[in-house]
Sequence to fold (179 residues):
Amino acid sequence: MQRNAAGFTLIELMITLVVVVVVTTLGLPAFADTLQRTRVSAASHSLSATLASARSTAVMRKEPVSVCPMTAQHRCRMDGVWEDGWMVFRDSQRSGQPAADSDILRVVDPLDRSLILRATSGRDRARFQPDGRSTGSTLTLSLCSADSHRLLGRVVLNNWGRARTERKPSRTAICSNIR
Fold:
């Protein structure tokens, strides 16, 4: 008597599970790396776009506009920590802080917890003059891995007010500006 039972045998099920485990084991590290690259790219783009927008706003309004890392109370931080978010504001009094809430033009949300974004020592913010220049020394913002402090990319703002990104630093580079 012949039976036509529908379903899987125990051996077929075990082979399928082994294949799934092998594919998952090999695929997860590659997926995590892809996810990290995507986060770095998104953060770099957001920061570059914010700087370009602030520069354009300063030229268009014919008044200074600043970009700085912010606190929860919408004040500028002075410690170079940018991963908690940043803001763009009219800085007509050149005080380095928004004079009123109405001066805040844009607020950018914090980065993913897997990333750290830090400014070079001595320059914690960017201020754009009405002609589009960024006064002071070159501002370098380093994107780093939160767990290993490995350098993942940079956004560099020159004195002419132009931002450029560096996306492929050395694999062994460590963020030196983690305070």
